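Support request from a user on the community tier.

User writes: "When I paste my structure tokens into the form, the page sometimes reloads and wipes my input. The last time it worked, I copied everything first. Here is what I submitted, just in case something in the input itself triggers the reload:"
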């Protein structure tokens, strides 16, 4: 059985072949097309439209897979001290729906996945790994944006292409046209916008004898952690919404108190959710909760990683063990290092 990792490896080979030019170009193209058709048919969780995109651009699918993995790791890092720690995301099905209730956690998951895919595609374009894109051509023509003393140059990352391809691929799975699909589409867009808003300007000086009489500048991507931190701030400020009828069908409106009047549309950069989060204390796979039994906690912390909150009042187990390591190492002439063996008794705490 092909796992998602094996599938991406084969797609990587097909993507490399698709970039080849030789006297046997037609043969190579036929092999790539046939291989992509077979492999993309076996990727779990894809909609028919996503499978068509996979077959048409196997090189881009490598970046999509990289973006999903990047987003999964970032989600797990951001929530590692929370009851819900994103550990159920990304297992077995790398490209399909994320099955959780329409909560703030679901909002973050869709936003960070969309951001990860847009980010990885834009990075792959800059490296020349996708045949249909490269550097952003727009910056070199925007002379009005360049202050005196510097000009656009280098290889600005094509975030626009990454966002467009991420939108086409991820939004293609939202076919139900119901409230949950509207929520997912909104959070997908918020994630993509977070990538564009995070672009940074890098410059290089030019001049005689180290002077900086002219600077060449370009746009580049920050570490993905910057985008993850930004989306985490949006997670804490996520807006509760409800789907309401509109001339074009359903539309999301911010849920307000009974005394409030009128309809408020959430901002495009906001994260939105439909349902309150479960407490994630007990295992409930239908709610995306694995529970907190066995999770490590900090006995002295008052935060989300503290045993009181993490263990939901059930108490915790104490595990004592001895850690042995080399210490007090000294270099002796000539030529060896001599160390003592030190032991340290430590404790770990896990939820009952």
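"...and here is what came back when it finally went through:"
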């Amino acid at each position: 059985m092909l796992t998602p990792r094996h599938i991406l490896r084969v797609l990587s080979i097909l993507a490399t072949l698709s970039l080849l030019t030789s006297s046997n170009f037609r043969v190579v193209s036929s092999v790539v097309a046939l291989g992509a058709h077979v492999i993309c048919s076996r990727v779990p969780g894809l909609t028919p439209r996503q499978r068509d995109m996979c077959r048409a651009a196997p090189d881009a699918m490598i970046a999509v897979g990289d973006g999903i993995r990047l987003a999964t790791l970032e989600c797990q890092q951001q929530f590692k001290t929370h009851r819900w720690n994103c550990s159920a995301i990304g297992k077995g099905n790398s490209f399909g729906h994320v099955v959780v209730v329409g909560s703030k956690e679901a909002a973050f998951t869709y936003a960070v996945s969309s951001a990860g895919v847009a980010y990885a595609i834009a990075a792959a374009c800059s490296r020349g790994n996708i045949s249909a894109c490269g550097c952003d051509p727009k910056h070199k023509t925007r002379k009005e944006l360049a202050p005196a003393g510097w000009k656009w140059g280098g290889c600005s990352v094509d975030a626009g292409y990454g966002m467009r391809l991420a939108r086409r691929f991820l939004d293609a799975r939202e076919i139900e046209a119901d409230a949950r699909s509207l929520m997912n589409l909104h959070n997908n867009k918020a994630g993509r916008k977070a990538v564009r808003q995070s672009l940074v300007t890098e410059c290089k000086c030019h001049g005689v004898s180290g002077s900086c009489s002219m600077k060449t500048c370009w746009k580049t991507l920050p570490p993905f952690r910057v985008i993850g931190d930004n989306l985490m701030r949006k997670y804490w400020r996520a807006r509760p919404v409800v789907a309401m009828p509109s001339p074009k069908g359903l539309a999301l409106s911010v849920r307000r108190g009974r005394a409030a009047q009128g309809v408020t549309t959430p901002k495009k950069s906001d994260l939105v959710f439909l349902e309150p989060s479960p407490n994630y204390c007990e295992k409930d796979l239908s709610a995306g909760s694995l529970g907190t039994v066995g999770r490590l906690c900090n006995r002295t912390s008052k935060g989300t990683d503290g045993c009181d909150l993490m263990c939901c009042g059930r108490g915790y187990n104490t595990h004592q063990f001895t850690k042995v390591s080399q210490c007090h190492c000294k270099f002796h002439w000539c030529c060896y290092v001599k160390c003592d063996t030190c032991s340290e008794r430590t404790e770990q705490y896990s939820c009952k």
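Agent notes: The reload is a front-end session timeout and is unrelated to the input. The two ends are 37 Å apart (CA to CA). The first strand starts at residue 150 and ends at 152. Escalated to web team.
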